[in-house]
Structures are given as C-alpha cells and as structure tokens.
Specification:
about 500 residues; alpha/beta; Helix Hairpins; Heat Shock Protein 90; 5-stranded antiparallel sheet; 5-stranded mixed sheet; transferase
Amino acid sequence: MTYQEEKLLFNQKTQCTIVQYDGTIKETDSNIFKWKVGASIYDVHPFFEIIKGFIEVFEKEETFYNFPCIHLEEKKLDKICDVTIKINTEEVVILLFDYSTKYYELNKIAQQKNESILKAKELELKNQYLIDKEKFKNSFIANINHEIRTPLTGILGFIEVLEKTNLNFEQEELARIIKRQSIHLNSLIEDMVDISKIESGKIKIVDERFLFINLVEGFEETYAKLAKERGIEFETHIDPNIQEYLIGDRTRVFQILNNILNNAFKFTEEGKVSLSVTKNYQRTNKLSVSFKIEDTGLGIQEENLNNIFDRFTRFNEDKQVSGTGLGLAIVKDLVDLLNGEIKVTSEPDKGTTFDIKLPFKFDVTKSTPEKKKKKYTLPETKKKFRVLVVEDEEATQFLLMKILISHGSFFVDVAINGQEAINYLERRNYDLVLMDLKLSKVDGYQATHMIRNNYGDKVISEVPIIGFTAKATEAERDKCLRSGMDDFIAKPFEQEDLLYKIVKQIAKKAAS
C-alpha cells in the first residue's frame, strides 16, 4: 500500500469540524458524519453541549480537551469516536477519530476473556462441589459404618453367648436366623465401604507371598457346608501345575472369588455350583491363572448381561433374593485394579458362568510352611486377672462383661470415657485395658497417650492396651499401634479372637 493510500485510509477515519462560539458549524468534512455547514453543533448530539461550559471558562489561552470512546449517532449511523475539542480566541475545533472497529474488536476480546474467566470459575465451582460432595459421602459412609457396627457387635456377641446356653430346637433356629441376618447386614456395610474406597482411590493393591492352595481349599470347606444346607452340589478342580506359593494381593483375590461364589449360591436353587482353577500361561516368573465359576441357577437375560457389573443393578427381583446390587460392581473394579479380565455368559433358567483371569508372580525359593497361630496361656496364679473395659455403649459393656466373667479368669471394671479410665488406673492395678477409640471428653487415643507418657509408675504406664473400634481398617490399626496401644480388634468381633488377644497380651506382659 502506497503512502497516499495509507494517508487516505487514515483520513477516512478522521473528521475535522470548525465551530463558531455560538455553535454554528463554520467548516467541516464528511469523512464520518454528514454534518452541514450553518447547522448548530448543539443539535447534532447532546454530548456537544459540553462546549458551552468550556467557552464560559476560556481564559484567552488555547486549551485542549480529550474524550476517549464517545458513543455518537446520526440517524442509522452509530460510531465510537475519540473526541478532541480545541478552544482558541476565534473558534472551536472538533476533531473526531473513528475508533468503532477497534473498539468492537477489543470489546469482543474482553467479552471472550470474561466468558473464559466465568467458565473457568464455573468449572472450579463444579469441581469444588464434586469434591465437597465426595467428602460428604465418604464421611457419611464412615459415620454410618461406625454407628451400625457398634450395635451389630452387641447383636452378634449376644447371639454367640446365647448359642452356648441350653436352647430348644425352635430357639436354636431363631438364633441362627438372627445371626444369619446380622452377618448379612455386616456384609452390606462392607460393600458400601469398599465402593467408597474404590471411588476415592484409597484401595491399594498389596503384593504378598501366600500359600495359594490354602486360599482355594478355604472356599472348598466354606461352601461345601453351604451346599449341604441348600441341597445342591459343590465341585472344585485345582490345576496341580499351579505353583504352591504365589505373589499377589490375596485379600482382593479372595474378595473377588467369594463375591461370585456367594452370588452363584444365592441364585442356584437346585443342581450344582463348580469352581475350576487352571494355569492360563507362564512366562519367566509371571503366571496367569484362570478361575471359572459355573452354576445351574436362574441365569440372566441376554439384554441384561451388558449391565451386570453396574452398581445397584439387580435382576430377578421376583425371586426374593437379598442384596444391594454392589457385589459384582466391586468384583469388576477389583479385577480392573489387579489388571485382570472378567467375562460372563448366561442362559435364563440354565445357569451362569464367570471366567476370570488374574496375573500373579512367583519365586523359585524353597516353599516354607505357613506360620501357625501361636498359642498363649494365662500365667499360673490363684488370683483372677483384672480387666478395665473403657466403653460408652451400654450393650457392648454388658457383652464384654458377660464374655470375660463367663471365662472364669477375669474381674471386670467399666469406665465410660478416657478420663474415667485414668481415674480407675490411678486407684487400682489392672492386667489389661480394652480401650474403645471413640469416646466423649477424652477419646481412646488421648487416654492411651496420657497413660503411656504421664506416669512414672510402670504398673500404669506399661499396662497392656487393646484398641477397640468399629473402623475395621489397616489405617485405624496402624494409628492404634502408633498411639501406644499393644493390639487392635474391630467390631463386630468373634469371642475367640477377643479372648485370644487378651490372653496373648497378658501372657506377653508376664513374660517380659
């Protein structure tokens, strides 16, 4: 573009108008607006009324006034202009520069920027909402988990006590029903907690060396009894070529197989359930194992197979089968976490087959026998051992007292919070403390810290303490041990486990 063309382009965006003191337009070009000579500038646009004030204060020296981005219209013409007004002794000069195109471009950019900021803020708020929602859900599940486990501990505990009394046939059956339904309720809680952990990424895969045959034989033993009760067959086949010891997450593998076997028995009224375990392939120290679980149960409609692993999905609603619809969703999530595969085939009224492939590792070191649970016995003494139960739930207090007193080797005192427990310890010597973690005033962690650190008397500071809580997690167990407790037991518990841990700690203390 030539200099003249550039100049012409620039000139088209400017307009110069000379106005007399009375407002009459003396001279003007028409590059922007078609103003006429002889017309009043005050009639052109209300903005120019401002000139009257400038004239009134004019003091004989040439003065300039600049106004950016003034919105001026003339009929259908609409412009954004920078306006410069020059006052001298003879006239008023008005210079306009058409800034419309640039203004709208900048305005569009600013608008886009504002929209971008708003969208980013909206996304941030949505993300924060999802985070808060997830925190609330996890907190809610954790609290519900704790609140339900506490009364469940009492129900299952008293059922165990009741089963050891003289019951007639009808009473035994009622006790079995209550126990079965309580165990089922506990499994539903476990499902909710597992789903919450999976969603929040809190489930960690832990590789450990374990005796593989024991895992499968455990299913044989457990489900053979159930098959006998249901009047169906249970068959198992284990490939003898699979190594005795494998490396993998034994807990998650057990969970996967147990969920599917439980489902198979739930929906099989006659016929059989079978578990087949075979070696898929082996490369160096890596091994793929196939698990096939087949049943002759109700089966699944073809249109429902694609949704079988969805959460809260339940089929065969008319068959009165209990469950949350979370079991298979958990299975699928765990298989994915283990980098495995799972497939399902089914035919209505003929049965269902689950095929699972899971990767393991193995080593060629010499097999070592599994460690057996060490036996402990109470020290020989003519006196009974004194146990302090620190628990604020009345039903759990009574249950623990019943279990320990029935054993015949224990006296029992009960404190309802940490501070009261410390008062008891200061007045009387105890052989062991059962410390609930969630207490009013002073909780179990605080009480344990005070016992371990605030007393020079070793009878108090070194008393064995077993943590007692409804939060059945490894993190909770580790927290208990770090706080100074000697062991940990989760609610609901089995009486044998509780007594084993109590005897173990008293025996270890006596031997130290």
